[in-house]
Amino acid sequence: MSRSHRSDGTTGESVGASAGFAALAIGVAAALVPLRDELGSANAALLLVMIVVAAAAVTGRVGGVVTGVVASLAFNFFYTKPYLTLRIHSGRDVVTTVLIVVLGLAVGELGVARSRQSATRRSHLRSMRSLETIGALVSAGASSDEVWQEVRRGLVETLAVLDARFEVDEANAHLPLIERDGRVDFHDKKYLGEGFALPAIGATLNVEADGVRLGRIVLAPDPSAGVTREQRRTAVAMADQLAIALRGRQQSQSTS
C-alpha cells in the first residue's frame, strides 16, 4: 500500500499536471476565439469538456475540479455574451458553465475510486505472495526466527503498520485484538477510503497453536493508513504460520 498518495489521490505530480491542464483549457479557449461564430458555443464547450475529462482521468479529483473551474471561467469569458467579461446573460450558458465544473468533479471521483481499487488489489496480491513465502518456509522446516522475520515483513506490508514485534508476556493484553474473522473491537473507528485504520493505541494478534497461547504480536499502526477486513484476516493467517513454527521448535526441544 503506497503511503506517497493522500486519500484524495493527490500527489505533487498531479498538482503540477492539474496546473498544466488548466493552462491548456485557457489556451484552447483563447486560440479558438477567431472561430467563435463558426464553431458555436456548444462545440467550444464540448472541446473544453474533453480537456476537463482528460485532466480528471489523469490527475483525479483535484485536477478535475481545478480544470473544470478554469475551463468554465474560460468558456464564460470567451464564449458567453457579453464577451470578455465574467457576466452571463443566458440561462442556458449558466447551465453549461456549471456542468463543466460538475463533470470535472464527477470524473475525478471516478478516477480516485478506480485508483483506490487498483491499489487495494495490488496490496492483496502482495499479501498473498508474502503468505505463500511464509508457508513455504514453515513447510521447509525453517527456524522460528527465520519465519518471524518474514511474518514481520509481511505484516508491515499487509497492514501498513509502522512496526510489529512478538511478545510472550501479558504487558499489552489490554490492546484491541484482531479476531480470526478480521474484526477489531474498538470504538473510535476511522474510515480512510481503502478500509478502517487500526486503533491508534495499537492492536494485537494472538499467536497460538493446538489451543496453546505462545504469545502475541503487537502492532504499531500508521494512523493515516486504512486496511480492509480481508487484509486483517491475512494477517491472522500469518500469525498462525508463526505459531506452527514456534510450536515445532518447542516440540523438537522437548524431545531432544
What is this structure, in a nutshell?
This protein has 256 residues and is mainly alpha-helical.
Please work out how many helical segments DSSP would assign. Answer: 7
> Number of domains in the coordinates?
2
CATH architecture of the largest domain: 2-Layer Sandwich
Described by strand count, sense and barrel closure, the largest sheet is: 3 strands, antiparallel
CATH topology assignment of the largest domain: Beta-Lactamase
Structural class: mainly alpha
Strand order of the largest sheet: 1-4-3
Spans of at least 5 consecutive residues with low confidence:
1-9
Q: What is the straight-line distance between the termini?
A: 43 Å
Strand content: 5-15%
Summarize this structure as a short list of keywords or feature phrases:
60% helix; mainly alpha; elongated; disordered N terminus; two-stranded antiparallel ribbon; three-stranded antiparallel sheet; 256 residues; Beta-Lactamase
What does this structure look like?
The model is unreliable at 1-9 (pLDDT under 50). Strands 1-4-3 form a 3-stranded antiparallel beta sheet. Helix content is 60%, strand content 11%. The chain has 2 domains: 12-115, no CATH class; 142-255, Beta-Lactamase (2-Layer Sandwich). It has 256 residues and is mainly α. The protein contains 7 helices and 5 strands, in the order ααααααβββββα. β3 and β4 form a beta hairpin.
